[in-house]
Amino acid sequence: MSNHDIFGLAAETPLILVKQITRYIKPTVMAKLEYMNPAWSHYYRVARAIVEDAEERDLIHPGMTLVDWSFGSSGIALAMACVSRGYKLLLAAPDKISQEKQDLLRAIGAELVITPSDALPGEPRSCMNVAESLVKSIPNAFFIGMHENPLCLKVHSEVTGSEIYSQTEGKVTHVFVPMASGATVFGIGRFLKAKNPAIRIIGVEPQGSLYAALFKDGKPGISALSELEEIGSQQPSAFWEPSVIDDVVQVSDYDAFNCARELLRSEALFTGGASGATMAAALQAGSGYGENDTVVAVMSDFGGYYLSKMYRDEWMRKRGYYRKAKSTIEQITAEDILHLKARRDLIFACPEQTLSEVFEMMKQSDVSQMPIVSYNAPIGSISENKILSILIENDDAMTSKVVGFMEQPFPVCPLDATISELSAKLQQNASGVLVTLSDGRLQLLTKSDLIDALTHK
What is the pTM assigned to this prediction? Predict the structure, then answer.
């Protein structure tokens, strides 16, 4: 018989092949659509399990007030579980959560206490501390503590991890997972590593979160605010298990928001910023993977919660995140070409180096031209042809500083410059074009890079 309880549904969430935005990388990339659960996030599975467990242990009963803190999506899942079972819900949430989330929570029947986003864990004003204080002052109340409940880990290990493995027929090689409480990535990692230790598990967080430094150095990183919701943390995970993950990477708000918008335009996947960050990390790393690799990116948050924020051009422009949309697939951008090109740090000369030193760098790096950079600003360039002409006129010049012989600097273009714009720059007697990445670093593109992009299948 069919199960008609909204919190009793056991259907798998879809695993979708990502086709358009992956056309310049070799591996198969798939999106695990956790936001297509009935509560529009991966918290659906967890909320159901936690409430049922508390009922079975006689910790709660209908009529009680359940209390927790939330960044929105977990609270929505919990509110849906509460309303269908006869509980009241009181949530503490930071003021950065979208208006859509706040409106939906109130519409479901949850009561909200909004706290300042800049309050760090442990401070009395933080949503965590406020929630713990509220439960002590309200009669007949119970603190859920969803983000620290070990059932979170169990659910994502036994259900989410298991689904990824079965849906890929065991062929998955890399899994990218957004990190908040850490339950999702460590649960998935625990299951998949048990199946195949060679599967690489990569956690994804925003810049300013602490996990990357904790994983690499054993110490939490310096906290900084991010506009992203449902991803990142300012306190260590209760589920910290570094043996089941292989890396933690950070993604900028700019890249996360724009990747999510591109997912909607190109793939019809309506995700939030956390999912955008996860896919951006997968695409970046995927440029170095092979044709036999299968990459899964967990899409955990629903785009409908961010219509007033990341899907609103005015909001994006005001914060410096806006990037114009690509009108057609054929409109290849500098970003597309860089995804296709094997990445390495920009090789450049400093103005105080000698011609001899610069020429030796060019030989070792197998390049015929090189930008000259001072304080991350391109001030000139030098090529083998120029060095040859210098030596013909003055064979003692190799000990002279390159700054005295440099040619015009390479033009600089943004990531969203089209291939037509790049080509126009290269036709103006420039042998290369520098592209500014979102983190301020530079990358060099040449005519051969553009030809490779145009002929790539």
Answer: 0.73
